[in-house]
Structures are given as C-alpha cells and as structure tokens.
Amino acid sequence: MNVKVMTSHFGALEIDDDRIIEMPDGMIGFMERRFILLSSDNNGCFFWFQSVDNPALAFVVTDPTAFVPGYEVTLTPDEYEKLKLDPESAEIILLAVTNIHHDSTSNITINLQGPVVVNPIKMVAKQIVLENGKYGIRHPLFTAPAPEPSLMKKEGERPVVSPQKITALCSNL
Amino acid sequence: MLVLTRKVGEELYIGDRICIKVMEISGGKVRLGIDAPTSLRIYREEVLAKVKSENRFAAEWELTDFQRVVDHLPKNSGE
Hints:
A: mainly beta
C-alpha cells in the first residue's frame, strides 16, 4: 500500500509502506521512529535516510564497508533481539551517517562509531555505539568539490562502490 | 543516585552478573575494571554524547551541498 511521505527536500512522495524501516530506539538524540531510504540514479553511493514522520529530518548515509575494507560490527544478543535478527542467518546492512564540513576543508566524513544496523528482512534498524577505539566518528571520505560547477574534479579520489544491497531497500526519487 | 565509597581493589556488584572493580586511582582519574555479560554494550558517556551531536550535525545537510557532492561522483559507480 502506498503512503504519502512529506519531505522538506523532495516534497510529497508516494512510498510503498513495505519500504518503511522501523527504528524502535530512533537515531541517537532524535525521537523519530520510522524512516525510508531514498535513492536516485545520480546519487552514487549516497542515500537519504528520511524520517517518515518529520519532513525536516533527513540524514545522508552510505555503505561504510565500501569505503573501509574489513569494517565490521559485532552485535550483542540484545541487539539481535531488538533487530529481530535470526542469529543463524543474520543478514544485516550497515549504514554510516555522513557529514559535510563547512569549514575550510569541505571534507565529507562518515561516522564509523555510530553505524545504523538494518535488518533488511524485517525492516528494523538500530543505531549502535561502538566503544572499541578502532573506528572514528569522523572518518574522512574525500573532500567535497568547491561550489563552482565544473571545477575541482579530481580523478582517482572517487569512491567506487556497489551499493545494490542498500538500493534494494530504497524508494526512488 | 546511590553513592558508595570504594577503595582500590574493592568491587561493586550490580545485580548478580555485573561487577565493577576499582583498579587504580591516580591524578584525579579512576581506572575501573568491568565484568559484565557480553550482551551489554558498555561505552563511555562522552562517546554516546559525541554520536548524538554528530547526528544533530548530520541532520543539517542542504540539498545543494548534496547535489554538489554527488554530481562529482561517477555515474553508475556500482557494477
């Protein structure tokens, strides 16, 4: 069944309700409990993680494993339960929250210390906090290009990733 | 808040399965040893606070910035 989702960035969207991801604990520091992933052909490896209930709340997320080889998250039994994961065949998708820094660097960073873990079967997600000292909260991806179009294209610094697993959960923009 | 006093080497139980031991006190710092079930995730308060503030910051993406970033990504970067 289609539901209408209001978004600040993209206006009103018709979304299939089986694409809604429940977050019983929300994103850390936020109250919102339901999200959708939005993709478009031009967005490469980046997705919008949009609140269903608050048009103004949207994060940019990406697949951390595409940028950080060997990145992994060990879940506790409580988290398995919360995510309704089958411990025998626990397929999960990891999303890293992305930031753009409006300082002199324009760096794009991802938060490896607070990944969002998604159970793609049950469409449940939880943001977890890792305290292992291994991963940073602002892991640099690359420097954003300057606002002037057609300038600053740097070959060789582009991420090449295969975000199909996340795309499968997305609604198209 | 329950407040208890412990000396170095002394322990404290929370329920049957969580034990906190004062390992060392020096220079205004307390080193704690924690024995707890692996089902509990333990983290310092400031790590949680950092994730929270990083989330708040991350919720402020402008569409124009996003467009600027993805316009410089390769098309069809997946296979």
